[in-house]
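Service request form, structural biology core

Requester: graduate student, group of Dr. S.
Request type: structure prediction, single chain
Budget code: on file
Notes: please return the result as structure tokens.

Sequence provided:
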Amino acid sequence: MKKIILLLSVFFLSSCSLFYNASKKNNESTRKFTPKKSIRNANNNLNSIEYIQAKAKVSFRDNNKIKSNTITMRISANEKIWINASLGAARILIDNDSIKYYNKIEKNYFTSDINYINDKIGFDSNFEIFQNLILGILIHKFDPSSLYKKTANSYIFRDDKFTINSKVVQSTVSISPSNFRVLKHSFKDQNNFFEVSYDDYTIIDDQILPTKIRFSNNGLENLYIEIKSISSLEKINIPFRIPKNYKRIKL
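Core staff response, request fulfilled:
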């Protein structure tokens, strides 16, 4: 997990524009459900939107300096994540088997299989993990008996024996007792502490989606994604073709 922020930063280093679509804001309920009901609903939360399009402002740490850009992101559920730079100058495509990137200005490209991601984050990942991190969906289920702590605004569950890539890590999640949304999800081993925080949500087609996402590694926030507009579509276009004369690079 040590270099997960580096990898995610690679995904979001771009500028873009997007047709705006207004969304309905998520209103917090004053009612609080039991820890058992809250974690069971969070466990059962799956993405039900086939095509998603979003415009986001991205702030990332580069050599201890914070830089910001905007991106267009399109998600074809369980298949592809597409990220576009301004006027298509740079594009990234992530699918079940590979990562691809090309830059029209520098005339170069990068391709790799999923092992590139695994080497960076330190465990066996897949497309579903990245999709779920972006959509605020748990990447594994918690047993109700794993309740660790209660706070005024959350229930915290902890699994000390979650195994990824034959490595046991401590996985902790903070759940809202009023609407079952994920507030934080963290992973800890002997050397690293990786956490994703979801500061705000909106509702699209009756599904709760995060609009402010923070990625931190060992207590240092390295990537922040703020969704400016998001919508569901009946169909989506994901154009991606690397020109033949571009030079292949290593990342």
